[in-house]
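User: Fold both of these, please.

Assistant: Here is the first one.
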Amino acid sequence: MRALVLIIILLVLASVSLFVGVADITFADILNWNIEKIELISISRIPRTAALILAGVGMSVSGVIMQQMTQNKFVSPTTAGTLEAAKMGLLIFIIFSPMGGTTVKMISAFAFTFLASILFLTIVRKIKHRNVIFVPLVGLMFGGIIGSVSTFFAVQLNIVQDTNAWMMGDFSSILQGRYELIYLTLPAIFITYLYANKFTVIGMGEDFSKNLGLNYNAIINIGLFCVSLTVSAVVITAGAIPFLGLIVPNVVSMIFGDNLKKTLPLVALSGAIFLLICDIVGRVVIYPYEIPIGVTVSIIGAIIFLLLLLWKNR
């Protein structure tokens, strides 16, 4: 029933997203078969809405995986250096293979994201006292170091603008033929759902997982693969989207509990709904201009994140 309600909300918001924008498109245009307006919807509005939904689902699910792997509710791609690692991968792509295709770009971003995630988990394991706030702070510092190194080389090579462009989430340039890479999030989401129960178990600790006969390291690697694939595809397609993988899983967990098998669809749907709302707000608040979704998500996400911190420390 809960999932059905969220699906209905998602469909309503997706429909609104198709008709919101600078170009005035109405439902009557479709009924009257206005070719120009229909082409605009198929080339721009439908790809944008699909990308928003997939990005919302993928980033939210990635947040759940990272929180289970680190046993910390405040860890996500935003607070673990994952987004900055994807930026470094894109920087390497620009430096060494600027004429390379999308495949090379994806491999570069994925490789650096995967390696940085492994390094972050290694650092977390070395921390003896895993305070709920201390671990994400370590992740923020880790991401800051990666981002600083990337910025240094970008400044030296005079490509700061090129690299910074990837770090601001923006769906305004999504067009047919330029967003399909984001469909790589689908297999990652599917794998996550298949391993949902196992991710729940590893969230209880390494010793507990091994006592139940799970191959802890194998499950961790599967989780890292799913997160790296999703984050890389989203960053390449639309740029970095902060806080999404942090706030949505926490809100869903607070309301519906921590049974991942049951809550994962709710997390996925809630992430897509949240991103659609932020995008629609960004398109109408200073109409006919548009606020990048990275800004709207950051503002709303930061407020919710601070509220979560205050609530956890009560």
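And the second sequence with its predicted structure:
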Amino acid sequence: MKIFITGGAGFIGSALIRYLISETDHSIVNIDKLTYAGNLASLQPVSDSSRYQFEQVDICDAQAINKLFAQYQPDIIMHLAAESHVDRSIDGPAEFIETNIVGTSVLLEAARQYWSELAAEKKQAFRFHHISTDEVYGSLGEEGLFQETTAYDPSSPYSASKASSDHLVRAWHRTFGLPVVVTNCSNNYGPYQFPEKLIPLIILNALEGKPLPVYGKGDQIRDWLYVEDHAKALWLAVTKGKSGETYNIGGRNERTNIEVVKTICSLLDELRPQHPEGISEYQQLITYVTDRPGHDMRYAIDADKIRSELDWEPDEDFSTGIRKTIIWYLENPGWCEDIQSGSYRRERLGLKDR
């Protein structure tokens, strides 16, 4: 098959492409605008494959997107292109609305027009897979899990924009019959993640002896999912999932943010015992900072549906996945330096006046 992957130079998108090139015989077209978080170096392991092609295109550019559909004739669309950092959405919501909502509508309409002209067999097999987030559900209390039927209650401009795009995808299915699948995942982590996110930020700051910022008391709870397990789940969802269905993907690895930070510090004490000057253990760098506006307290995914219906199981739990992640960052300092060669310097974002 020919598969379009939007946002393929990003963290999850690049993991998905590496998985598909190494584990399947399908051909991939990576469609990416290459914003600050996009990095083709994340695709270096597969960039020489004859089954991989890259197109630098903005999903908001309807003319360019329609041209790609005509040129490549895809069988599957896996849509990951999105602005994805909550703190950045607080500083500048407009870009999130443009990319995540308007861009998704452009892609949906191009897909609908292309799909409507396919032969019957190809039309039936076609899928538009929208990859989304558990943040659309809002904040959980101390008990319970997000299920596919949980009502949406987004808190940030980012999660509101993703909720909007989810609704658009379902509307194109219900109104026009476009075959779609939606997946909502918990927090991803692993190799090649842009260092504005918690885990790589803490790893890199610790190695340089910089403060390890923990929002509020660090008691916010997240469910952590190793990115390569997520890639496998995405492929199952788009190839075996039913059109019109939603599948939640989570690792069942709930941790408070402070637990995550302390785990990283302990592993770095073991794996990189040459501490920066002035400290004898990395936990001494932990610094509590003002919490994020509208910070959700707890996310947790009920992944029973994808486990039972599509036979998905994660290979990594948090203890194995976080060790693999830290080792990767220790072994790839060049990638870490290159991706920060632009304007981002691990500074605090998202502190606009409330």
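The domain at 2-189+224-254+297-317 is CATH 3.40.50.720 (Rossmann fold).
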